[in-house]
């Protein structure tokens, strides 16, 4: 049973309130594909991923990034129930999408960097720690149903 | 993984922009690492790890200096960090997983101070560079 302190919940809520889910999601996914190019293996049908510029401008990347981060929003509404919240998505990523859970950790780290760049000095060490905890737990929940 | 000419020039440009601030950023990266990944504190039982610790500042300066040195000798990071590599293998023996953690915190620190510098391409190059440094420092472990 994960424990969230009042401070952690506050740090999550206050950051999330100011996040543009579409922009942030698009940027996080684009950076994942740019910084760790082997992650492109899951997106053969996305069209042009041949350069950072192509990736950033790719409408499928933007749309999928938005989808992924919107799902993150669900996690934030259900902080005490992440495994249940992500149960179906976990099965999907294992059985249909065949995604190595390491990729969830990579995306989580990238998301933290995107938030850091957006919030600059407001992204304090305590804030980073809380968000790394969150992305780690989301990654864990997404991996939970793997077999 | 190999640093291509673009990576090298991106990394040199970043450290050029950081200039003298690198030391302060080194300390902040350590502070972030200790806060975010408390298990990393186990390597510093002899340190005061409280906020504003002079020891953490001093150590951050050392870490930053090593990164700057590696960036300045980016064609031969192994050569530039050879003594540090020996030190980590023989004496410090920091588990290799921790270099990734510090790398993440260094990237976050740069992002918070210089978001415009950390374009996706520069982010990729800097991440590669930090990986390369970690690899060199653990190369002689066994």
From TrEMBL, chain A:
A UniProt-annotated Pfam family: Globin
GO MF terms, alphabetically ordered: haptoglobin binding; heme binding; metal ion binding; organic acid binding; oxygen binding; oxygen carrier activity; peroxidase activity
GO biological process: hydrogen peroxide catabolic process
Metal-binding in keyword set: yes
Classification via InterPro entries: Globin, Globin-like_sf, Globin/Proto, Hemoglobin_b, Hemoglobin_oxygen_transport
A single Gene Ontology CC term: hemoglobin complex
Coiled-coil zones: none
Keyword tags: Heme, Iron, Metal-binding, Oxygen transport, Transport
Magnesium recorded as keyword: no
Residue span, Globin domain: 3-147
Assembly: Heterotetramer of two alpha chains and two beta chains.
Functional description taken from the UniProt entry: Involved in oxygen transport from the lung to the various peripheral tissues.
Similarity field: Belongs to the globin family.
The protein's name in its UniProt record: Hemoglobin subunit beta
From TrEMBL, chain B:
Coiled-coil region(s): none
Domain of life: Eukaryota
GO biological process, one term: hydrogen peroxide catabolic process
Keywords assigned by UniProt, alphabetized: Heme, Iron, Metal-binding, Oxygen transport, Transport
Matching Gene3D superfamilies: Globins (1.10.490.10)
GO molecular function terms noted in the UniProt entry: haptoglobin binding; heme binding; iron ion binding; organic acid binding; oxygen binding; oxygen carrier activity; peroxidase activity
Globin domain sequence ranges: 2-142
Gene Ontology CC terms, in alphabetical order: blood microparticle; haptoglobin-hemoglobin complex; hemoglobin complex
Family membership noted in the UniProt record: Belongs to the globin family.
Function recorded in the entry: Involved in oxygen transport from the lung to the various peripheral tissues.
Protein name per the record: HBA protein
């Amino acid at each position: 049973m994960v424990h969230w302190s009042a401070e952690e919940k506050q740090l999550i809520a206050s950051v999330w309130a100011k996040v543009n889910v579409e922009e942030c999601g698009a940027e996080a996914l684009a950076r994942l594909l740019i910084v760790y190019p082997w992650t492109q293996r899951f997106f053969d049908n996305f069209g042009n991923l041949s350069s950072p510029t192509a990736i950033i401008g790719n409408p499928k990347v933007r749309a999928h990034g938005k989808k992924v981060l919107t799902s993150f929003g669900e996690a934030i509404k259900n902080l005490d129930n992440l495994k249940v919240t992500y149960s179906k998505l976990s099965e999907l990523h294992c059985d249909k999408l065949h995604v190595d859970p390491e990729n969830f950790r990579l995306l989580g780290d990238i998301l933290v960097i995107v938030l850091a760049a957006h919030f600059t000095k407001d992204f304090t060490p305590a804030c980073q720690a809380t968000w790394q905890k969150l992305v780690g737990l989301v990654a864990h929940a997404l991996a939970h149903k793997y077999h | 993984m190999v640093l291509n000419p673009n990576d090298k020039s991106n990394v040199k440009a970043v450290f050029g922009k950081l200039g003298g601030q690198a030391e302060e950023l080194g300390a902040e990266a350590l502070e972030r690492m200790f806060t975010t990944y408390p298990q990393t504190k186990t390597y510093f039982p002899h340190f005061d790890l409280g906020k504003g610790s002079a020891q953490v500042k001093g150590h951050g300066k050392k870490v930053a200096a090593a990164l700057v040195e590696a960036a300045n000798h980016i064609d031969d990071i192994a050569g530039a960090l050879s003594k540090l590599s020996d030190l980590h293998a023989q004496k410090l023996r920091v588990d290799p997983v921790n270099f990734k953690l510090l790398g993440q915190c260094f990237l976050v620190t740069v992002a918070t101070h210089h978001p415009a510098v950390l374009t996706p391409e520069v982010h990729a190059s800097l991440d590669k560079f930090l990986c390369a440094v970690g690899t060199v420092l653990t190369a002689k472990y066994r």
